[in-house]
Amino acid sequence: MKYTGNVIKYGDNVDTDVIIPARYLNTSDHNELASHCMEDLDKTFVSRVQQGDIITAGQNFGCGSSREHAPIAIKASGVSLVIAKSFARIFYRNSINIGLAIVECPEAVDGISEGDKVEADLDSGIIRNLTTGKEYKTEPFPEFVQKIIENGGLMQSIANGIIA
Amino acid sequence: MGMTMTQKILAAHAGLEKVQAGQLILADLDLVLGNDITSPVAIKEFAKLGKDNVFDKNKVTMVMDHFAPNKDIKAAEQCKMCRDFCGEKEITHFYDVGKMGIEHALLPEKGLVTAGNVVIGADSHTCTYGALGAFSTGVGSTDMACGMAIGKAWFKVPSAVKFELKGCLRQYVSGKDVILHIIGKIGVDGALYRSMEFTGEGLASLNMADRLCIANMAIEAGAKNGIFEVDDITLDYIREHGGAEPVIFKADDDAVYDEVITIDLDNIEPTVAFPHLPENAKTFDEIGDIKIDQVVIGSCTNGRLEDLVAAADIMRGHKCAENVRVIIIPATQQIYLDAMEMGLLRTFIECGAVVSTPTCGPCLGGYMGILAEGERAVTTTNRNFVGRMGHVGSEVYLASPATAAASAITGKITSPWEVMCL
User: Fold this and answer.
1) What pTM was computed for the model?
2) What value of ipTM does the predicted structure carry?
3) Percent of chain B as helix, strand, coil, to the nearest 5
4) A68:B37 CB<8 A
């Protein structure tokens, strides 16, 4: 799976309350959630995010609540991939389960700046910064997780008999 | 190589003799939980499978607690969706207004979790039940839907950090101070992806409210779960609340831990986590004069009877400070009733506080106590992220019920030791 997009960069400990504030959790409509994505951290996000953009972030991205609304809001806002130094565990599994591409790569996060154009190939584990020409290597997902992603998420994996 | 408590429970539920850290497993679930915010997403996912029924109608539970009693029309519609689903699928343990309480206080009280269980809940604080010697962890709505459908969940077997507790807590110091101290020490990702296992002779001085509070906030250190070694205090609690027969898993003597941290309970002081991360823990020698606008005592972390007793002991005979709003939220109907019979509600009301029906409301900035720009709250809840309780320009300070009560009286962040002249 290949992803190409321009980077929007954030720091450490971006929590689910700023990704999608609880005051908007009275809905599960994807587009409505996307319209408030990152609102309490970056009021400009919604107006500047473009289809295919890539978020990079520091440690512990998605910490806090279990709300699946957080990866849903990011995915529905058009973001194709999140690269972070590390992810909070519930956000990590939620992203896999709903089919939002995520990858941990501290070196890439340090080497990529806001606005850079980045290409990531998660099969080969190569992240390329097209703006600087630098390349970074990541670990591929375990086979079991890869299967869930290939099947389009957890529910589809159950429907396809991959998990029973 | 031996296994930790968590690894043993997971192995038993995956039908394996042995598991090791990093291994991916599919485990059988004893209970699947959702609330009025996370369940609607799970119900929509569940519908995609076209299954008529959940895997076991006695092993799925939904609790209407976050925005219930309904805060607005959209919240009402989300609760209705859960109510209709549970009615249609004949879910035994559906808790609506009148029966509901804050989920993580309610489930142990109702005896729905016992030692040795594997529980997932679409709420990050599901790790609370580790206090009962269960493996219990927060997941998202899709995992909940999967759990409701097939009674299983996938897990990466975690490694663990062992917390060896020694000594005994001092007066007006509680489990909340212990966990804020620990998170202050290891950081908000200090236990990322790992188990926090609590053991040692110090356990004897921690009551179940303390333990539930500590396990509850394991997630604030990034942990997958927090779990306590089972002792007589655990077993008495499970028995009193009609829980199923406990199965006790003890860590092997040669279990491997990433780290062993000794916590001397004698040295724990009243602790406050400053905005905007739970790891910003400070003791009162580092805290100056900080005026506050609101106090909240309640939540899945600290809304239990012991918490209300601790707050009432400090507030009795005093008045809340001028211009400080004090909101007390017993976590369940039973706690509300017990607090009423013990006269605690009178104490709070005479002091100038309000007492609310059980709800998560203010903890996550939903309703029932939202902060304006520039306002500060001392609360017994679990998160102090930017905008957590209202305006992005407001501030949340996390503390124990005793510290929150002392602060309510003085109008500034205050140690219970100061008010009680210790």
Assistant:
1) 0.97
2) 0.94
3) 35, 20, 45
4) no
